[in-house]
Amino acid sequence: MKRIYLLFFSLTISLFALTAQASENQKTNAANDEEFDPTAVIMHHISDAHDWHLWDKVDKETGEKRGVSIPLPVIVWYNGQLDVFMSSAFHHGEQTVIKGANEYALYHNKIYVAENGAINFDENHHPTNPQPLDFSITKNVASMMFSALLLLAVFIPMGRKYKKGGKVPSGLQGFMEPIILFIKEDIAQPNIGEHKYQRFLPYLITVFFFIWFNNMLGLIPFFPGGANLTGNIAVTFTLAAITMIITNVSGNKSYWKHVFATPGVPVWLAPIMIPVELIGILSKPFALMIRLFANITAGHIIVLSLISLIFIFKTIWIAPVSIAFVLFMDVLELLVALLQAYIFTLLSALFIGLAVQEHH
Amino acid sequence: MDLVTPAIGLVFWSVLIFLILLFLLYKFAWKPILGAVNDRNQSIEEALAAADRAKEEMVKLQANNEVVLKEARAERDQILKEARDLKDKTVEEARVAAKQEADLIIKSAKEAIANEKRAAINEMKDEMANLSVLIAEKILEKELGDKEGQKALIESLLKQTNIN
Lengths: 360, 164
Fold this sequence. Notes:
heterodimer, A: mainly alpha, 3-stranded antiparallel sheet, 57% helix, globular, B: mainly alpha, 2 helices
């Protein structure tokens, strides 16, 4: 079984590599003598993208730098029309793509509806063109799919092993089982309660490993890692929203009573208390969302800044310093990756626990 | 601002992928893993309980053994005592019986001796009577010539015979 998974992964990766080779002959805008702009580079790296950049290659004949990247599917909805095409059709933003009545352009990794093959800008150099509904498989989506497959590949064989009746954990099992038990016994049970925790345990374990695996994948600087997935506000928003929905759907009488008629508070204070409590409902998951997003994005920014130092100073002698600091940061980020997954899971359990507990 | 604006597409895919992942992991990983861990905990608890029970049983069994041993010892003592008593009794009885037998034998021997003695005495008396008569005849033959002498003899003879 293991071998089949391995084969599957290597096939997927080699397929990506092949398509990458196919799109190699696209030019990047950056010229060799262009002024290095760390902010642009860093923002580009921590933002989502429509292709998965692998490496740059200098053309021997023309001396031009070409980006080697994996094209990803673009799925857009505009004017009642669904268009699907590969992102390589944009040629790194150099060309627009015409699909029926719609014409799309790529600008700073965002898709706009182009007018006559061009994008209009306002005085702040922001595009004024409308944006289609973008459901593309972006770099982050592809990375998420990869991490989901990785999670399945790690845990489903493990589950099967347990089903077979192997009572003594071995190998990876021995490493993962204590973590699962830690989530069960030290996060779910004390925060949600002995009797109710079981319903929420699968979510908590899944969210923990999802965040942890994606944090770790984000630390790997090359394919198939490197996507700043858990540092993307959309992903942390989704996870926080799921926690919020679970919390409020499973909230019991005393939870809602606490929101709409806080015990011990005079009735005339209700007009103030109810909005405050409602803000509280939103602010808890909001904090979850911002905490994960900020921590992971900050880690990526620091690592990239340290590396940018080499290019800012334009000397190789700064490299040992950068490498030493990046090494330190990467090790710290390994801890942060685990810590943030733990904190997200712990706070989710805490919020759910507050909503389902019987008495104060 | 782009950095903190959730992209709708990514939200859509995140929800989709996460929910599918949650479902698959729940069904094929967490359920069997947590089930197996629960089973294992239960079996460990049961094994510990069984060990405790076995220990208690052992203690009980040991106590039981002691009681049985004590009883056996008491029984042995009892049996020994009874045997000793029986021996003593038997010896005593034998002694008493022997004594009785001996007494009986002695008694009968004594009786026999007495009888023999009496018979011997009687025989001697007869013999003596015969001798006396013989002597008397002889004397009488000699004495009876004289009247006075006759009388005195009879009287003395009478006196003598009264001794017996």
